[in-house]
């Protein structure tokens, strides 16, 4: 099951944490080609539905077994494979498009495109796109296993709304309020990043008696907000009901409804499940080495 990415790469110049001409050029190239591949268009829904079904079929192979939910993706090896099989007349994906652009600009001394930068850009796209969603799915499976009554409520709502095994779409969101609430509570409770990406202060600012000079870096404390008692009653309690009037994310809605439709998750007999994050700086990642029992629903 594709849940964990291992970025064993030389980062190069990246989309995240880079400024200036290089950032502008790579960002413009990336947005243009992601849109060409369907980002922000209606066909993205069918693409996510397909990937959700593929994930379920992969997990079905482990039905009845107790095992961790992880696999590694080594980006450098993936890019190397694309280089060996590149057909410039038939690009398959973003990596092929980037490799073609590197070749096109190779005689330009001002080019900002290189293999090293492709690795960094791809790592950022995986980290900001794939990794965040995959980690949220892993947390959601842990919470469904830890809190079986929550899983039963999800099953009841999804079975009533998505009859005959039909997959969820954006039109189903208003009819799946508990599922959306579960997604939001999963994101709050797991709080994947302790701090959001840094911002730069654009002018000298005074806040609560403190002076923040222009050009200072500030890090929004996401986890502190998610567990702030002035915003959330009993913040250390996992309770989706607190979000019954909120909106969820399209990708997670489709993945989680598809998983709950077809599979059931539980803690294996005689084992425990630790839903506290790993002890690592900045990120609240699941403890990936724990076993989950997967069963196929009729």
The number of distinct β-strands equals 7
What's the CATH C level?
A: Mainly Alpha
Order of helical and strand elements: HHEHHHHHEEEEHHEE
* Overall helicity: 40-55%
CATH fold-type name: Cytochrome p450
> Which assembly state applies to the chains in this document?
single chain
Low-confidence stretches: 1-10
The CATH homologous superfamily name equals Cytochrome P450
CATH architecture label: Orthogonal Bundle
How many domains in all? 1
Secondary structure tally, helices: 9
Inertia-based shape: globular
**Strand numbers in spatial order across the main sheet:** 1-7-6
- Could you report the average pLDDT, rounded to the nearest whole number? 85
Portion in beta strands: 5-15%
Radius of gyration: 21 Å
Main pleated-sheet profile: 3 strands, antiparallel
